[in-house]
TrEMBL record:
Residues 289-323 are annotated as: Disordered. This is Putative ERG25-C-4 methyl sterol oxidase. Residues 139-274 form the Fatty acid hydroxylase domain. InterPro entries: Fatty_acid_hydroxylase, Sterol_Desaturase_Related.
Length: 323
């Protein structure tokens, strides 16, 4: 009887030689099996990174499209006289998808080699502790906010604004999908704040796992999309974390085109005095809401009359919004 042919080892199995699989939890085993199944760690990391970005971005942006279609939510709209049209949302979606595949995909595909060069763990298991992950993400938030404030402020300098940043300001009343509606160079420049923190941290400490980076990027995408949502709810984070920026802060930047340059926190704008117009405007808006309430009027007192770019809203669109 012929001897059975030896079973060839899985391509990626050599990545985990000596690993105590029994000591791993469910997520760690799933992580290991992903790299073994793909076989090539560069492809495994690139594919996982891109899928994660797309799923999180559109998964978080789509709910805001639904909210934009609900007249009952208009009382929470920050720029209550403006609303994105379906045409503007579709235009934004097409452009964002184009930049994701032509600008961000090549960067994501080169992510694994750069991680390996800097000593950032990718396929390795087990994962770091949650305590370590939270501390590292806290550092990334602080670094990104500082970087974004100064880089964003620089993008408002004449030539840089005209040739690069003006694209992002096409929508003076932003909506969730518009978070990454930007010139390719702006995607590169401001994206450095998101990945620069982890890379710098890893270059110094040699102690960072890509899982932490994924959690950080997910939170950063949530922050960016929510900041562009155009809505301020009673449960919005800035209402219970005073130094959090949120849509209430960033929406004014799009409306006024200057000031409120930070992303996550308010302190850089506060100490640099670049939130003065924001504070004055919000005070006036609060007073208008107070008077409307005293008069027994519902807010907003008037139907939407403009699109997300500030152009007049068609009469048929206005009629649909007040139904």
């Amino acid at each position: 009887m012929a001897a059975a042919a030896p079973v060839a080892p899985l391509w990626g199995a050599d990545l985990y030689q000596g690993t105590d699989v029994a000591a791993l939890n469910f997520l760690e085993k799933a992580w290991m099996n992903w790299y073994i199944w793909i076989g090539n760690p560069v492809i495994a990391t690139g594919l996982m990174s891109f899928l994660m970005h797309e799923i999180v971005y559109f998964g978080r942006a789509i709910p805001w499209i639904i909210i934009d279609s609900m007249p009952s939510m208009r009382k929470y709209k920050i720029q209550e006289d403006r609303v994105p049209t379906p045409e503007q949302q579709w235009k934004c979606t097409r452009y964002v998808l184009l930049t994701h595949f032509t600008v961000e995909l090549p960067q994501i595909w080169s992510f694994h080699p750069l991680c390996e060069y800097l000593g950032l763990a990718t396929h390795e298991v087990p994962f770091p502790s949650w305590t370590k992950i939270l501390i590292q993400i806290g550092c990334f938030f602080v670094f990104e906010d500082m970087f974004h404030y100064w880089a964003h402020r620089a993008l408002h300098w004449g030539p840089l604004y005209k040739h690069i940043h003006k694209k992002h300001h096409e929508f003076s009343a932003p909506f969730g999908l518009a978070a990454e509606y930007a010139h390719p160079l702006e995607v590169l420049i401001l994206g450095m704040g998101t990945v620069g923190g982890p890379f710098l941290y890893c270059a110094i400490t040699k102690d960072l796992h890509i899982l932490t980076v994924y959690i950080w990027v997910t939170l950063r995408l949530f922050q960016a999309i929510d900041a562009h949502s155009g809505y301020d709810f009673p449960i919005s984070m800035h209402n219970w974390i005073p130094f959090w920026a949120g849509a209430d802060h960033h929406d004014h930047h799009h409306m006024a085109f200057v000031g409120c340059y930070s992303t996550s926190f308010r302190w850089w704008d506060h100490f640099m005095g670049t939130d003065a117009s924001y504070k004055r405007y919000r005070a006036r808006q609060a007073e208008e809401k107070r008077k409307a309430k005293e008069e027994g009027l519902e807010w907003p007192t008037k139907p939407a009359s403009k699109t997300a770019t500030g152009a007049p809203l068609s009469k048929s669109a206005v009629h649909k919004k007040v139904q």
